[in-house]
TrEMBL record, chain A:
InterPro entries: MetI-like, MetI-like_sf, Phosphate_PstA
Topology in membrane: Multi-pass membrane protein
Keywords attached to this entry: Cell membrane, Membrane, Transmembrane, Transmembrane helix, Transport
Record-annotated membrane-spanning stretches: 27-48, 76-102, 114-142, 148-166, 267-290
Full protein name: Phosphate transport system permease protein PstA
One term of GO molecular function: phosphate transmembrane transporter activity
Species this protein is from: Accumulibacter regalis
SUPFAM superfamilies in UniProt: MetI-like
Main location: membrane
Pfam families reported for this sequence: BPD_transp_1
From TrEMBL, chain B:
Principal localisation: membrane
Cell compartments where the protein resides: Cell inner membrane; Cell membrane
Organism of origin: Accumulibacter regalis
Record protein name field: Phosphate transport system permease protein
Domain ABC transmembrane type-1: 94-305
Amino acid sequence: MTTANAALFQASSLNHRNARVQSLYRMLFGLMTLMLIAPVLIILGTLIHKGGGAISWEFLFTAPTDGMRTGGVLPALLGTVWLVMVALLLSVPIGIFAAIYLSEYAGDNWFTRVINLAIINLAGVPSIVHALFGLGAFVIFFKFGTSILAASMTLAVMTMPVVIVATRESLQSVPLAFREACWNMGATRWQTIRKVVLPNSITGILTGVILEVSRTAGETAPIMFTGAVFFTPFLPQSVFDQTMALSLHLFVAATQVPGIAEEVPFGVALVLIGLVLLMNSASIAFRMWLRGKKKW
Amino acid sequence: MANSNTVPGAAVAAGGAGAFDRRDSDWYVDKAVQGLVFLCGISAIVFVLGIFIFVFKEGVGFIFHHMNVREFFLTPYWFPSDADDPEYGILALMAGTASVTGLAMLVAVPFSLGAAIYIAEFASGKTRETLKVLVELLAAIPSVVWGFIGLVIMNPLIIKWFDVPVGLCVLNAGIILGLMAAPIMTSIAEDALKAVPDRYREAAEAMGATRWQVTYKVVLPAAKNGLLGGVLLGVGRGFGETMAVLMATGHAVNIPDSVFDSVRALTATIAAELGETVVGGEHYQALFTIGILLFLVTFTVNLTADLIVRGIRKG
């Protein structure tokens, strides 16, 4: 009796083979994941190794000197801050309201589907086509000229899907019961959204906004012809000025300046990637903190 | 919503129909906000239409006055700045874009599917979270930084390893673009795998299947459409990528014979030449015509990807 039971629960040769195949595939896919991540980590290490020496307070807070061959990145850094701020001022309100429409008002019908498709396309159209749009629409048609305003508007249109998607997800994670309780007290739709839905999703929205900052700061093509310039000795004073930008500055320093000190473009790349990854990590950390404290 | 607290009869007695009228300031604010929210809701449609209209408006002159469809699509000669006889043939540019995107997908598709399967089906707990965060951070690296990496890190490596004179080529740009597209495809593919209900996996595991058997026989077939959609979106991304391709391909108008040939992509051509053109000139309009082409292709790719992904949700 006992022997029969033992045989019943003993792994057959088929089980053994399956287990071997299983661990083989597990290893294969694990290796693939590693090979996806490892090169990037090596590359980042190289950037830090070669550009780390260039980074200093002086590098961050002085202007380029000697025909951009030496010196710091201050005008580019400030220009990127300008571009991102103006783009955010434009895209965040519209993006949040668009997400409110999709989450709170829109029905499940063809029209909503068309809007969703438009959002996917807005995110999927090549950045250089956004640049052409910005040039044709904002620079030429609306006569903003090549300015921070035109460049930021182009960036805003391009990165709006980030805010919309993050906000919509955040709004939809608020349970319907919260809204129903509010409606039953006689509140209007907007009162419910403002007093109940938004306060319960604001942190999630913020995550999306931070993510958009990082996306916007890294874009190059859309600002090349709409407001960012290779070099200007002036810091921007208003939204109608042209400006330098960190991303374009990297392109210029890497390809257009002969005889540039080798660590300068590495330093610029490091500042840009540091800025972007810092923002992204902040957004991710924020999201994790949020998940840990959610009450429902 | 007309849910008044008063008893209907009493209201009529007290103030007639007026008591039911909830059009106070809150009501008007609500209606106004509804209008505003709707306007913002359709803004995405407006912007996509706007992109098409404005790019078309700037490029249309070329299409109707200068373009010879045969020459445009079927000749590889792109000499727009020749004063006497400018030539606008984008065959070589299309070949450049296609070769780089193709190689990138060859790199990215297997690795990102493998990584997605590992993250979604094999890894668990802390490992999974860490990998997901890493993939998300990789997806955030700006394209101009990738281009820089191709230029200063990959270029000397390719020259050294393969003993070729120039390292800015299809291989360089393909690998860079592959590394760029892989994180995005990984997270889309992982979403698609996660969308397969757990009860499918439980049912298969209850039958004694190993994790790999469950993945191969149950999860992958169920997630097929989502995975395909993810791959298509990755193709769209690679196709439309500009800065990295501009910096890593070598930017030479050329139909490639091998992966070590320098090429030039459609997107990069616009980025490199638009600055030197006269607004409204023939060359300027030709570049916008390429923009129209890029828009139409990515639009089609995105639409197809959406239809494929939605198909599974409906069925």
